[in-house]
Amino acid sequence: MESYDYPEYYEHPVLHDAAVMNLILKASACGAVTKRDCIQQLCCKINAVDGITCRESREPLQMTFIAEKVRLAKRYLTVAGLVADLAEGTFRLTVRGREMLDRYPTGLDQSILAVCPEFINYIHSLGKPAGSGDMKDRYAAGYRAFGEGLDYTENPHRADSMAFGSWSDGWREAFDETLEHKQSFPSGG
Questions:
Q1: Of 116, 149, 157, 166, which shows the fewest CB atoms inside 10 Å?
Q2: Integer CA distances (angstroms), 57 to 44, 49, 52, 53, 61, in order
Q3: Strand pairing category for 90-93 and 33-34
Q4: Based on the structure, what is the number of domains in the chain?
């Protein structure tokens, strides 16, 4: 596989949104936790499914992906009012979080969070572009990034932003054009 392809690892069943959110809700139901606690628990769950010990380390790209999954899931749960931030990077389950955990003990995702007005408002706020010119600039930046040798995973924008999508689209367009050129001119000409 080329470095710009996502390995099959990213389709790991323990890393689906519902499973990650469920882990965060259950961990925070036991008291104050940090994102780092949740990342460690998630790595142990992944390792258990893969048949390896929790002490084995993961590749940096895998850890970045796992940390991003936890960060985004925790943000969604916070916005929806299911977990609440405490002091020094800790958070805990709220009463609403307990109710949702009891109602959906096997996990919940964004489609279920959509019953929370705060979450709907948050999602709507993400869809408001700052200006069409901004998105064109992000697209062009992604396109240039491919030409400069940056990897697809080096997108500088938040994964839950429109800028991330625009940059990614530009990068993929440049990649596709390069691939088409190679297929049209196999000898490099």
A1: 149
A2: 10, 15, 10, 9, 12
A3: antiparallel
A4: 2
Question: 101, 27 in Cβ contact below 8 A?
Answer: no
Which domain does 147 fall in, by range? 132-184
Torsion of CA 180, 182, 183, 189, to 10 degrees: 120
Residues 65 and 140 in one domain: no
Same domain flag for 118 and 136: no
Residue 110 · residue 17 · CB < 8 Å? yes
For the chain, helix (H) and strand (E) counts, in that order, are 8, 3
- Note whether residue 189 is domain-resident: no
Instruction: Give bridge partners of residue 34 from the DSSP assignment.
Output: 90
Q: From CA 158, how far away is CA 66, in angstroms rounded?
A: 15
- Give the length of the chain: 189
pTM of structure: 0.63
Residue 168 lies in a domain: yes
Q: How confident is the model at residue 15 (pLDDT cuts 50, 70, 90)?
A: confident
Question: What local confidence, expressed as pLDDT, does residue 67 receive?
Answer: 85
Last residue of a domain, one of 97, 123, 149: 123
Instruction: Compute CA 126 distance to the chain's CA centroid, rounded to the nearest angstrom.
Output: 15
